[in-house]
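Table S5 (text form). Sequence records supplied for joint modeling of the two-component complex.
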Amino acid sequence: MSMLNGKMRSRAGTQGHPADPGETRAMEVKQNAQPGQDVLGNDHIQAEEFQVFYQQNLGSIYRYVYSKVGNREEAEDITSQIFMKAVHGIDSGRGTEAIQKWLFQVARTTIADYWRARYRLTTSSLEELLDAGWEGPAGAEPASYRSQPAERVQYLLSALPEHYRQVLTCRFLFNLSVKETALSMGLSEANVKVLQFRALKRAAEIDDIFEKTPSS
Amino acid sequence: MPGEEQEQEQERFEDYLALDRYLESLETGGTPRLPEMLTPVQARIYRMAALFRSASPEAAEPRPEFAAALQARLLQEQHLPQPAPSRPAPAPRRPGARKPALLSRRVLLAGGTAAAASFVAGVAADRVIEATTANPPAAGTNPTTWNGESLVPADVPSQWFFVTTMAELGNEAVSFAAGAVVGYVLRSSSASTISGSNWEGGSQANSASQERIIALSAACTHMGCIVQWQHADHKFHCPCHGGLFTANGEADAASSKLYLRPLPQLETKIDQGKVYVRVPTRS
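The corresponding structure-token record, covering 499 residues in total, follows.
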């Protein structure tokens, strides 16, 4: 009678990959699949693990992608692509943190590919976009500041002058139209358009400074 | 604000309009209208716009329908044969074992667990809907019904699926995946409220103790997440919302998720020392 502890197997052929002790699962696994037994019996372990992984990471990946594309449709589209890649590419032998970093990396390259394909920008503009940190340098790990869009927004709002903060709050947090914002702030609609432009520009400058500051 | 006019980059009225058009397109949906030529400064401004858009309440969480639909797609994807060349020669598959019938999973789950059915409510639109019907559990007509929760109704075409042998079945739950059905097989003491012991055709105790082999669906009766057997406490843990089930599949009192229905059971049989589970046949 041979009892074997279930071990996490990584995909893509690294068959002898040992599991982290912390990830060993006390579930018995059939090592010798008998004829007629569904070979899915082995893959099933990763299926469960991946479903957990999906539930835990969907929210943060979705918010991260949304903060890059600014709209729900593209956020859903790209998030789907990211997880579909992850389903086959995930190396479950690694630790949770390493896997999450990997997932964010997949997110960044997926977003960059998406822009290349979708927008067909001229090469120079695309380079400028990427250069301007739209996607960040390839391989760079997202610092916590970068991967937590909500915190970034809060910080930037607090660092802006009052009139810039107000227009961004109206237009983005409250989702007011230009007309409603104008009424709320006692400005013309043209003024609002100028103000939101400059507010975002100032926010971008603050963001750059924050990122380049060594203490961040 | 005269000082602001003397920026490094000349602001044109067109810039303000283009930005607002972009914001408008983000709001209305569809393809966002991003200007083709952007200077680095402008690119940062547009990047900020996307970031600030994500701060609105509507952007905070993915839509539940989207999350469920993607989850269903991923499940399908996981059960498909992998083309990876580095795998060893695949074990012989059951004849006709092609794409798992995700819909039949919904049939099964709808039988006893309405909450779990909502989990697969977002079946991807490109799946062909099969002509299986969603039946309530055939309690009473199914001779081996426990807790009234027989997972596979009597009139759904089914087959016996081999899981493990009695010799190899120890004191831990053994998982199996038969197409869309994912579950566990384990020894169960008959000291629970389960009645109608039906092992090898009768309530025969084995020589060691009053014991049966049961098969449980691994789909948590809350929202359908796959529960995990924990060796340490001999219980099934749901990773999603704290659901907890005993080794007999009943809701555990210590569960942080209250009012859980028991994990549905599947029929088992022992034949020449081999443990089988009755699962729906894939058409």
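Note: Chain B has a mean pLDDT of 70.
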